[in-house]
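Appendix C: a fully annotated inverse folding record. The material below is reproduced so that readers can follow the format used throughout the book. The structure is listed first as C-alpha cells, followed by the designed sequence.
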C-alpha cells in the first residue's frame, strides 16, 4: 500500500491536496514529551550512491537553459519620481503577516548557534531573536529529534532554520517546529556550500523562486507559526536587482512573513562559504531599494554588520538587522541590545553575572556526562577587546576538558580577570545622546 506522501509526490497532485493529506499523519502530535512518530512510508533518505538528478515534477518549470524559472524581465516597470521603478500589485502580496517584527537578531551559524550558545547569549540579551543552526529536513524526519531540536525555554524567542527543497518534508518539519514550541520557522535559501548544493537547497534555490514559493505555501498551511526566508541578493549571473525583486515578489505571494536578505551575492562555483561571506561586495542599497519597492513586506538586512550602531543605522531603511560572526566573536556586544533596539531599560547583566549563570548551567550538563568544552568554547570571546582576554582563552582551552573539574576550572579562570572588567556595565551609546545623532555615513561602509 502506497503511503499518502509518496502517492502525492508520484502522481503530482495539487498543493492543497498534498497539505490536507499531511495533516492526517501529523494529527497525533501532542506535547514535547508525548509525540507519535511521523510515518514517511517509502519516503526515506537516499544514500550517496542513490543520489541522482533532482526531479522537480510539476512544482517548478525550468528555462531553456535548464537553470531557472526566472523571466528575463521579471516585473514590469513604471515611471516614478526617481526614474523607472518596479511595478507590482500590492494586493497580491502578503497582507496577513504572522508574528512580530524583530529589529535585531543573531544569524543561524553552523557549529555556532547550538543550544549552549543560545543559553549563553540569553544571559546577555533578553529580546534579540535567536536561531538554531540549519537543520536539514532529512535529519529531522529520520534523526534524533531530541538532540536536534531540544532547547530550554530560556532561549526563546527562538526560530528553527530548515534546509530542504521538498514542500511535503518542509511542511512536516514546520509542524514539528510548532509542536516543539519554536516561535518561527525559517527556510535557508542563502547557504552556498557544495554539500548544500548537492542536496539541492540553500542559495541555489534562488534560481527557482516558484519552487521556493511552493515550499513556503506548504509550510504556512501546515503551521500557524511565522514562515520566513533567508536569502542572498543573487547568485552567479542571476545577480541583478530585478532578479532579486522577482524572487521576493514570487515568494511573497505564497505568504512569506519576512525576508532576511544577505546583502552579498553568492558565487556557487569558485568560492568557499567563508569567501562568500567576504569576497562579494556588499550591496546595501539594493536591500534598501527592495524595502522601498515592497513597503508592505517585512525586510531584514544581513551581512557585514559588526556593531549595534551600524544595525540602528540600517533600521532607518529596513525593518530589522541581523548580525552573524560579530555576535560570536564579540558576544558581550549584545549587552546593550535590549536598551538600544527594544527600549528595555532594565540593567543588563555584567560579565560576572553571566558567568555565574553559566557555572550552574555547566554543572548541570557535566553531571550528565556532557563534554564541558562543548559549552565552554562559547565563552572564549566573552572578554573580547578587554584586559586578560588572552589569558582567559588560554586557561579555558587547557583546563575545562574534564567534566569533574570543569566547573572549578571555570571559577578559577574568573579569578584571573580584573574585577573592574567582570563587574563593568555596558554603555549603549558612548558619546551620543540619541540615535538621531548617529552619522549614517560614519557607521555604514
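Designed amino acids, in order:
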Amino acid at each position: 500500500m502506497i503511503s499518502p506522501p509518496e502517492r502525492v509526490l508520484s502522481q503530482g497532485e495539487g498543493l492543497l491536496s498534498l497539505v490536507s493529506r499531511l495533516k492526517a499523519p501529523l494529527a497525533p502530535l501532542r506535547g514535547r514529551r508525548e509525540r507519535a512518530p511521523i510515518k514517511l512510508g517509502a519516503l526515506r533518505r537516499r544514500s550517496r550512491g542513490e543520489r541522482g538528478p533532482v526531479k522537480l515534477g510539476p512544482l517548478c518549470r525550468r528555462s531553456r537553459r535548464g537553470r531557472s524559472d526566472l523571466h528575463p524581465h521579471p516585473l514590469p516597470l513604471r515611471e516614478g519620481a526617481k526614474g523607472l521603478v518596479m511595478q507590482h500589485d500590492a494586493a497580491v502580496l502578503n497582507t496577513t503577516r504572522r508574528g512580530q517584527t524583530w529589529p535585531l537578531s543573531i544569524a543561524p551559524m553552523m557549529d555556532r548557534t547550538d543550544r549552549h550558545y543560545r543559553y549563553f547569549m540569553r544571559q546577555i540579551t533578553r529580546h534579540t531573536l535567536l536561531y538554531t543552526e540549519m537543520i536539514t529536513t532529512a535529519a529531522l524526519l529520520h534523526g534524533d529529534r531530541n538532540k536536534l531540536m531540544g532547547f530550554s525555554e530560556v532561549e526563546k524567542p527562538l526560530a528553527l532554520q530548515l534546509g530542504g527543497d521538498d514542500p511535503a518534508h518542509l511542511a512536516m518539519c514546520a509542524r514539528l517546529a510548532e509542536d516543539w514550541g519554536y516561535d518561527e520557522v525559517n527556510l535557508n535559501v542563502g547557504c552556498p556550500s557544495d554539500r548544500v548544493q548537492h542536496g539541492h537547497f540553500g542559495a541555489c534555490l534562488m534560481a527557482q523562486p516558484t519552487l521556493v514559493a511552493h515550499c513556503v505555501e506548504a509550510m504556512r498551511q501546515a503551521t500557524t507559526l511565522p514562515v520566513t526566508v533567508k536569502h542572498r541578493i543573487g547568485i552567479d549571473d542571476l545577480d541583478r536587482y530585478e532578479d532579486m525583486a522577482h524572487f521576493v515578489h514570487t515568494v511573497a505571494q505564497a505568504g512569506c512573513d519576512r525576508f532576511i536578505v544577505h546583502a552579498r551575492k553568492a558565487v556557487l562555483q569558485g568560492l568557499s562559504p567563508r569567501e562568500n561571506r567576504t569576497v562579494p561586495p556588499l550591496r546595501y542599497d539594493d536591500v534598501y531599494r527592495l524595502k522601498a519597492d515592497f513597503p508592505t513586506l517585512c525586510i531584514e538586512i544581513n551581512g557585514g554588520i559588526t556593531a549595534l550602531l551600524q544595525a540602528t543605522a540600517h533600521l532607518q531603511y529596513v525593518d530589522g538587522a541581523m548580525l552573524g560572526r560579530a555576535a560570536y566573536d564579540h558576544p558581550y556586544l549584545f549587552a546593550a541590545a535590549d536598551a538600544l533596539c527594544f527600549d528595555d531599560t532594565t540593567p543588563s547583566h555584567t560579565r560576572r553575572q553571566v558567568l555565574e549563570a553559566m557555572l550552574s548551567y555547566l554543572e548541570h550538563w557535566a553531571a550528565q556526562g556532557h563534554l564541558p568544552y562543548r559549552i565552554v568554547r562559547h565563552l572564549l570571546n566573552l572578554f573580547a577587546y578587554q584586559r586578560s582576554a588572552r589569558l582567559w582563552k588560554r586557561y579555558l582551552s587547557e583546563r575545562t576538558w574534564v567534566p569533574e573539574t570543569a566547573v572549578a576550572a571555570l571559577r578559577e579562570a574568573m579569578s584571573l580577570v580584573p574585577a573592574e572588567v567582570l563587574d563593568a556595565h555596558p554603555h549603549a551609546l558612548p558619546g551620543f545622546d540619541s540615535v538621531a545623532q548617529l552619522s549614517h555615513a560614519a557607521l555604514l561602509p
